[in-house]
Every structure is written in structure tokens, then in C-alpha cells.
Amino acid sequence: MARIRISRPRRAELARAAQQIRASGQRSGWPVSRIAAAILHELPQVLPLEAWRWAYGWSRSQVVEQVDRFHAAHRLGKPGLNASMLCRYEHGEITPSPTYAAALCDIYQAAPAQLQLLPSWHPLPITRSGYGAPTALATSENGRLRMTDNHASRLEALRESLALARESEGPAGGPQTIATLQAAIAYYDSTYSRWPAAVLADEVHQTRSIVGQMLRHNPADDLRIELLAGAGWLSALVGNLALHLSDHAAAQIHLATAARLGTVATDRRLTCWALAAQARVSYAQQHYSQALTLAQQAHSYADHPLQRAQVLAWGQLRALAHLSDGHTARHIARQAQDEMTTAGEGAPGRFGFDAAELLLHLAEATLLLGDYTASRRHATASQAETTVGRPSWAAATLVLARAEAGRGQPQDAVGLAYEVLDTVPPEGLRDTSRRRLAALDRDLNAIASTSVREFHDRIIALPALTPATSSSDEPNGT
What we know:
This protein is mainly alpha-helical and 478 residues long. Helices cover 66% and strands 0% of the residues.
């Protein structure tokens, strides 16, 4: 929705005019949808979310209370919506997250298009009948993939295709099974950031279980190597997803399995990637020396400048900054940038690396070193390289928020954090972003202001991450 700037006196005039339209419509027996349409027609400065609220005659506080009830009924956790945020939605300053969009459609009994929530958003499934009862989420114009029956079935179809190929070729599989497995891994990789981590983790676990079953049926040597490599990349995915779900112990186990299988299958890229990812998990666990050791191991397997840039960024840059080794950290930063320039444009997906991700790590490293101006510059550049709503955008925005806090701009920092919280639904907010939010909360701890206190309360109210529910055996590579 486009923002429309209206003065307070004019806004009050519009509210009174809307009341008159509503009263006239009620006398004529109009449904709420017709009253809202009349308000929008006669008061073109008003946006749909405000028009529909006025059509019902509700205050913002009443709508917020109904959003609370919607979240409770759908077990979505405690929402962070307040009257001030709803005002910003209504005036086009920010866009509701999919969860809030679903609640508003349900409350107003309006379709997403009627509230101008399309094409940017398709809200979550809701059970109430009426105008606004979309059955699922869909792909938005900005590239975000939301769960729909159709999209969920794509994941299931990949797994079912693998099982069918195995059934047709025998319990140990064959060439068609391998081709299907590789297609599934490529799909998981290319759509990684579009799925809630727990959803994708459950699916990848089930696929890896099928591969484990095939390995137990003594496939021929060449087929076994292909299966081990596939199992390794699936373990790498599971490990990375465990990191985003805050299960660091499981992440290390799965990534160690991936590295081992890469060695057995002589897949140097897999071994390199898994070791670098282990370094990233060690960093998250605050084991900085261990992260450096793993990164050095990963670097010995890197055969391409893009891989070397990834290893340097994931395993060394931030760890050195945390250890206050600014001189070496700056050297590693220049080296990573040189490798990235040599490599050219990075590959998409978790198995690749790109400019946005390198800039993110540069921003975080300079933040840790206290260079808030450089951190702000890198974070802003990272934002520009990604898409609003994606995990990479959320990460860059939150690092930018911390840089603003470091520069003595707490209100700007809180505003940036709210952009993330209002854009990314709780189920899509990874542990890495949650940790950045918590760090920002600590950065602002000494600031005495209403907005900072409200931000703190909203962080506390975030629902916990949903853990992965499926599990699979760890292939041992023998």
C-alpha cells in the first residue's frame, strides 16, 4: 500500500465523514463490505484497512484485541501488535506480516485484495467463513514462498518420486533414483529460504531416511558413492536447518556427518561446505577458536574463489572480530572481498554464496570492532542486494539496526527492528535473526524510552521456534 500523508485535522475530518457514511449505509441496510466500498469511493485519501475498520465502527484498540484472540485461537503465540502499529498499517507506512494479514482478513471478513494485501501478501489459512477465507498461502511478487496445499505438495511429490523410483529399480535404487535424488537436493537448495526451517527440516529428514534405507541394501560401488554424496548433502541441509532452529548440538552432528560423507564420496565441495558450516555453528556457540580451526580445515578443501570467500566469511571474519584481533580481521575481510571479485556473481541457495552474504558478514565484523559507520555502509549494501522479507534481508536490517544503536540513534534502531518484526512472520524468523534481535535489545538496555521498552516487551513475547519433528538415521559412510 502506498503511504498517504494526511494532517491530523484532515484525518479527523475524514473519520467524521466515514461515520456519516456508515450511519447512512446502516439505515439503508447495506452490508459492511458496501459501506467500506462507499467510504473508499467518497474519501479517496483513505486506504482500505482504515476504511474497513471505520465501516465496522471499531476503534484500533478493539481491532488489536480481536487480533489477540485470533492468535490465541490459532495457537500463533502472543502477537506484538498495538494500536500504534495498526495505525502505521492503515496509513501505508508498513505492510502487515502474513500472520497479521490473515488475522485482519478474518476479523474484517474481507478478501486480501479488498484490504490491498495483494499482491504482496497472501495470508495464512483461516477457518472462519465469509469474505476473507483464503485457504492457503501463495508465492508473492517479491519472491517469498508461503505454504499452500500446492506448494506443500511439491515437497511431498519430490519424496514420493524418490520412493517410486526406488521401488521401480529395487531396494538399492538405480540411475533414475539417483537422478531423482539430485533433483530433490537441487530443489531444497534453490528454495531453501522460502520455507519455514522446521517444515523443510522435516521433509529433508524423511528424504534422507529413504537414502539410508537404500544404503543398507548393499548397492553397487558406483551407485553407493552417488548415494553417499546425496546423503551427505542432505545431512548438510539438515545441519544448516538445525542451526536456524537453535539446535546447535544437532547441527554439529549432522554437519560432521556431511563432512565425513564428503570425504568418503570424494566430494571436496561437500567436505569444504560442511566444515565451513561447522565453523559457523561453533561461532554461534561462542567457540571462536574452534571456529577458526574448522575454517582453516575447510579452506584446505576450497578449490574455487567463491568457496574461499565463503569459508573466510563464515569461519574467520567474525570470530577474529570477537577475539578483538582487528588487524587480522581486516586482512581477512580484504582477502574475502578479493576472492569474491575474482569469483564474480555467487550462486544462489545455501550451498552457494553471494555478495549480499559477504556484505552481511563484513557489516557484522565491523560492528563487533566498533566501526559503526563501516558497519552501516556494509549492512545497507547487503540490504540492496537482497529481497525484502527474505532471511538475508532480515539479517542485514538487524545488523543495520545495531549499527544505528552504536551511532547513538536508538529510535532509528528500533524502527528498523520493527520493520523486520512487522514483515517476517514469527515462524519465519530464524534463530540467527532472533539472536540479532536479542543483541539489539541488550544494546538498547540503558536507554530509557517508551519505544525501547515496547521493543523489549515485543521481543520477550515472540513465540518459540517450532522444532523439527522428524528424524533420520545418521549415515556412517561405511
